[in-house]
Amino acid sequence: MRNSPIFEYGDRIQLTDVKGKIYSFTLKVNGQFHTHLGWIEHSNLVGLSEGRIVETTGGLKYLAFKPLYADYVLGMPRGATIVYPKDSAYILGLADIKNGDKVLESGIGSGALSIAILQAIGDSGHLHSVERREEFAITAQKNISEFFGQTPSNFEVTVCDLAEFNSNMKFDRVVLDMLAPWEHVDLAAKVLRPGGVFISYVATTTQLSNIAEALRSQPSFTEPQSLETILRPWHHDGLAVRPEHRMIGHTGFLTISRKMTDGQIPLVKRRRPSKGKYGLPNDENVE
């Protein structure tokens, strides 16, 4: 069980050495963790609680925990680029994905975002993931099953193009992590309940422009909002406090909108036009 602090066979375990290097593996019967200075029998770890110092036969010491979500997804096998924890956390927050929600996700990738959604919706929610590449779906399902210890009963995968997806279920949230989400805005409008949330994750400004304009052109959605997240870690050692030399900059753009009640037309945000956007005023001349 993931909530148990006691290590059992089948659990993912994370060992951290004095330099902060992390080693992660699954506890198996007759398994061993080998280092350059001795080894640890998996059987010696089973029954211990998290937060223990464990030692190899050669005297190397490690701090033992079960991996957190961020630790696990950054180290798991990948079939496609993952949604980084900083973005998945923002997706959950912006889209207000919570216990009991029914979520449609397209673009399962390696399963990182799927894991985050499944943790948020709990046992009473439902996640339906659509992925057109079977090899990605297989890798993602393996990662999800290993993280939870089994495949969650409220998780469903369909291997097909999203344009071919057909469901009578009304979803609370639609999350699209794909190359051309603007092609599926009409489908999102069809499957979302009134008040439901649409959110997309794209990498480039061209994609961002396309999805924003597609949402504005679809009368079922409110004015879209877009943003990106930038993560800057900090170093602190006594009074030596400064930003780390390396940071996680741009990974992707998030665009969010909400579904209107059928028959209602969204209010259009009034903006002052950019200077020169509509040509010059009649009383101005340019030589």
Uncertain segments: none
Radius of gyration: 24 Å
Shape: globular
The share of residues in helices is 10-25%
- Calculate the mean pLDDT score and round it: 91
Q: Count of DSSP helices? A: 7
Instruction: Give the strand line-up of the largest sheet.
Output: 9-8-7-10-11-15-12
Biggest β-sheet, characterized? Answer: 7 strands, mixed
Calculate the terminal CA-CA distance, rounded to whole Å: 76 Å
What percent strand? 25-35%
H/E element order: EEEEHEEHHEHEHEEHEHEEEE
Structural class designation: alpha/beta
- According to DSSP, the number of beta strands is 15
Give a summary of the structure in a few sentences.
This protein is of the alpha/beta class. It has helices at 42-45, 69-75, 85-94, 112-121, 134-148, 185-191, 205-217, and strands at residues 12-16, 22-26, 32-35, 38-41, 52-55, 61-65, 102-106, 126-131, 155-159, 171-176, 192-202, 225-228, 234-237, 240-243, 253-258.
Structural account:
This protein has 287 residues and is of the alpha/beta class. The chain has helices at 42-45, 69-75, 85-94, 112-121, 134-148, 185-191, 205-217; strands spanning 12-16, 22-26, 32-35, 38-41, 52-55, 61-65, 102-106, 126-131, 155-159, 171-176, 192-202, 225-228, 234-237, 240-243, 253-258. It has a seven-stranded mixed β-sheet, sandwiched between helices. It has a four-stranded antiparallel β-sheet with strand order 2-1-6-5, with no helix packed on it. A hairpin with a 5-residue loop joins strand 5 and strand 6 (61-65). The termini are far apart. 32% of the residues are buried. The model has no long low-confidence stretch (mean pLDDT 91).
